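Q: Structure tokens for this one, please.
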Amino acid sequence: EMLRVTGVQTCALPISGSGASVAGQSTGLHRDAIALLALPLLMACAADPMAQEALDYQSAMAPVMTQNAALGAEFLEMATKLNDESFGPDRLAKRWHRKVLPLSEEVASSVNQVSTADAELSARHQALGQAWEDRAQAYTEIDQAWTAGDPSAMDQAFQANVQAKLAEEAALADLNALLGAYGVALDPFPEP
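A: Here is the predicted structure, written as tokens:
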């Protein structure tokens, strides 16, 4: 038999199935004694450095995910104002420039300040960072197209934003697939 660590298996110890016998019945005392003696060794084996890396990464990304959720809420708020004639295009443009652009740049900057030693986690993190940089660039291009009154450039900027959103969703799915093996995840909609 093998005594295995639950979750991600990092080591296993052979445990004999034969135990002391009472009237022909196995009590498992021998197995239990070995398991008890091996517990400190087992605990040392179970300390998977990637498990700690995943927890540290989740913790470091929590404030960035909160920033990103605030950006998403502001973007949705702007979208609801597009057809509100009382709000007006000038107020929309000012709000976009004052709130959405700085938030998008802040999120892109914040995600790039987080790093990890694990190569696979780092590659997935970089994909998320690239998606958020692309989104910030698309938002800047939306602002420029709006200011210039260029519908073709506006259309291209919105398409770039859609591509950045798809890349963000894929990166978050990849990150959470890796992190999920360690019982953690990035919450794309954290409570503020």
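A few notes: The longest helix spans residues 49-81. The chain is about 70% helix and 5% strand.
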